[in-house]
Amino acid sequence: MIRSLFVALRLWLLLIAFVMAFVAAWALPVLLPLVQIALGVFLVLIGIDGWLLFRPTLGNRTAFFARRDVPDRLSNGDENPLTIYLENHYPFRTDVDVIDEIPFQFQRRDLLFRDRLNPNETKTIRYELRPTKRGEYSFGAVNVFVLTPLGLLKRRYQFETGKQVAVYPSFLQMRQYELLAATNRLTQVGIKRIRRVGHSMEFEQLRPYATGDDIRTINWRATARRTDGQNASLVVNAFQDERSQPVYCLIDKGRPMQSPFDGLTLLDYAINASLVLCNVALYKQDRAGIMTFSNQLGQVVPADRRAGQIGRILDALYRQKTRFQESDYELLYTSVRTHIRQRSLLLLFTNFDTVNGLRRQLPYLRRLAKDHLLLVIFFDNTALRALIDQPAQDTEQVYQKTIAEKFAFEKKQIVRELQQYGIQTILTAPQNLTANTINRYLDLKARGLI
To answer: Which terms are listed as keywords in the entry (predicted)?
Structure first.
């Protein structure tokens, strides 16, 4: 009971006022009896306030109840909603201060909520947390400090003492893309409508003509049958995309992928994009798999489209960590030869900063591109881009801008070097990685390259 009792700010202010009143009574003795009476009333009010806070309740129900609603898994890099439910069983109005002990990884000490509840009222506090690292997160207690209308003392209640929550790759982003795809609203997140250059010969259905359709697919007989007076509606033959094509995300876990951007590392961006892409590939009836590597071979999930495949990919990506060493591309090549026997689309998430760094690995990339359709995805340095766009004010800034332009030119050279050998490339800012990767995958699929 004593450990849950705290003094409110109002009580400290009143104590200061009484000290000042006794000082004044020492100068004016006539005030002393009034101050003593007020002090006695004050002590009685403290006793009443304590009794109201700790008064026995009927049955086993506590006078106040709180519960934190947190999912078993949090999505890395996304705003995850959390909820605290409050129930006041006191017969009077209460003011509450709620402090939630969130995991130390968030480095936040300002999570304080204040509210007021009437008798037998229930309220909900909603807030969001954005984790930036995968792994186990430990929540502490929900501390609720209750005050009566007198506001002299506080009683602390503690609920939900300790809970372990796993932070997984961005499954919220994956669900968002899946929902938008189901409602044909992918353009809202930067996914372009891909005009199909060619098509397979497997007929699927008849559908109304849409702008951009190949006029050679118009079914004139079906159009003639649907002609009604003056209203003629063109009908086209729709063909199925090639299905069951293997799609592998190759994720580099070497030192360059540890570079941070907006709280996340490049490895986390690659993992989040790989999860979304694998889900899109499965939605397109392709087979999705992953392979991670650095100086050692990491996790390998063979391409498949059976039920539960996205769950297996999610569990595998959850455990990936940067090894802070140079990646072995020879190991990558031999691992692909061993584990991937059928021609596949390989999306290599990595980062090259210099042309010399690329040329050391180029022989292995060319061998991969010989047996598979290889798409190399690496990152533009947005900080350098902002420095280039900013006007220089002095000699030092001119020097810094020149160095930044040199590094930006190196990135463009890397793209040209890869394209020279027929290797597909994407140079993208981290925040645009997912949309750009999906756009290229849909483009390659529409062109019939996979």
So the answer is: Membrane, Transmembrane, Transmembrane helix
